[in-house]
Amino acid sequence: MKKKLVILYGGRSAEREVSVLSAESVLKAVDYTAFSVNVYFITKDGDFVAAGVFEATPHADDHLPTNETYDKSKVMPASAIYEKDAVVFPVLHGPMGEDGSIQGFLEILKMPYIGPNITHASVTMDKIMAKHVFESVGVPQVPYVALTNLVETAEKIKETAKKLGFPVFVKPANMGSSVGISKAENEAELAAAIKEAGLYDSRILIERGVNAREIEVAVLGNETVASTWPGEVVKDVAFYDYQSKYIDNRITMDIPAKIDTQTMTQMRTFAETAYRAVSGTGLSRCDFFLTTDGEIFLNEINAIPGFTQFSMYPLLWENMGISYADLIKKLVELAEQKFSEREGHLK
Which residues are catalytic? Predict the structure, then answer.
């Protein structure tokens, strides 16, 4: 008998377009001899929409509904996604998707789900909180300034100039996929970058710019954690922003990364340490900087990394001998395992 998989995609965050791409890639990779798939779209207003039942790989030209194309007659109560014995794959990025919100909702519904638990999701979504956790377990961080109240902008600009110098990168604390990130070369640009990031969050992270390669490690597991050999993001743009990632495709990847074994092993150790520190479950992608003088800094953990056909996470596991389809099966197993454990603790 086939297992039931429920895919959620879309969502209310500015990263919903990435979610659509990821969900379509997952649908094309699923082993339909093992799974039947029910798909639901979450609109930018938070409505849940039935988006189809799939028993076979969709045609290459088929596309999932978006905010512009969904059928309003198929809007339904959020709780209607419940199916007995189904596993949910929330292919959602950013706030209201990988910040613990949807995870809490699924736990209330008593449905097993792929990916981060509430703690893992909420801590890694907030880049400032994550920095504190990573520092506590000895994982090195790029020097930073945290702006937690936009009223303090003027004094934080002065603090940044004194503590970090320029250039710096300015990021909304609770956003991913490079949304709202700017590079600033002076105080005037920093003020503008803070204003831009403030459109997405009132908590803002300002990091020292470092001359570094961008290296990523995939992590998989619950209590038992596995990691991949690192891959490198190779880009022909100033920094890895949303446009270059998902629109221009101006990114290539070296898998595995062309770095020495000792450095790769250290990155894997840091990745697994950081993952355990946030009580990681399911999966994550750990993003590092490797400076020209060999320093390693953990940039961030992505609790629900991109799952498109050109995303680093599934490609890293493919390099380790695990296909996209088998990766989905493993994630389902991990979700069922964690659900059984969680429900057992509540009895």
Answer: 15, 177, 311
The answer to whether the annotation marks 285 as part of a ligand binding site is no
Residue 247 confidence (pLDDT) above 50:
no
295: tokens are: 């320093």
Phi, psi of 20 (to 5 degrees): -60, -45
Q: Tell me how far apart the alpha carbons of residues 209 and 206 are, in angstroms, rounded to a whole number.
A: 9
336 Rama class: left (phi>0) / alpha (psi -120 to 50) / beta: alpha
Domains plus CATH for the chain?
Answer: 3-113 (3.40.50.20), 143-208 (3.30.1490.20), 211-343 (3.30.470.20)
Say if residue 276 carries a ligand binding annotation.
no
Q: Are strands 204-208 and 182-184 parallel, antiparallel or unpaired?
A: unpaired
pLDDT tens for 90-107 read 999 888 899 999 999 999
Q: What DSSP state is assigned to residue 175?
A: -
Q: Which of 81, 113, 243, 124 is nearest to 178 (CA)?
A: 243
First to last CA, the chain: 29
> What average pLDDT does range 162-191 have in this prediction?
90
In this predicted model, what pLDDT tens digit does every residue of 260-306 receive, in sequence order? Answer: 999 999 999 999 999 999 999 999 999 999 999 999 999 999 999 99
Q: How many residues does the chain have?
A: 347
Beta strands in 74-157 (DSSP E): 75-76, 86-90, 144-147
Query: Is residue 127 part of an annotated ligand binding site?
Result: yes
* 8 Å CB contact between 215 and 290: yes
222 annotated as belonging to a binding site for a ligand: no
Query: Is position 24 annotated in a ligand binding site?
Result: no
**What is the C-alpha to C-alpha distance for residues 269 and 219, in angstroms, rounded to an integer?**
11
In this predicted structure, what is the pLDDT of residue 239? Answer: 52
DSSP-based three-state secondary structure for 216 = strand
d(CA 347, CA 153): 49
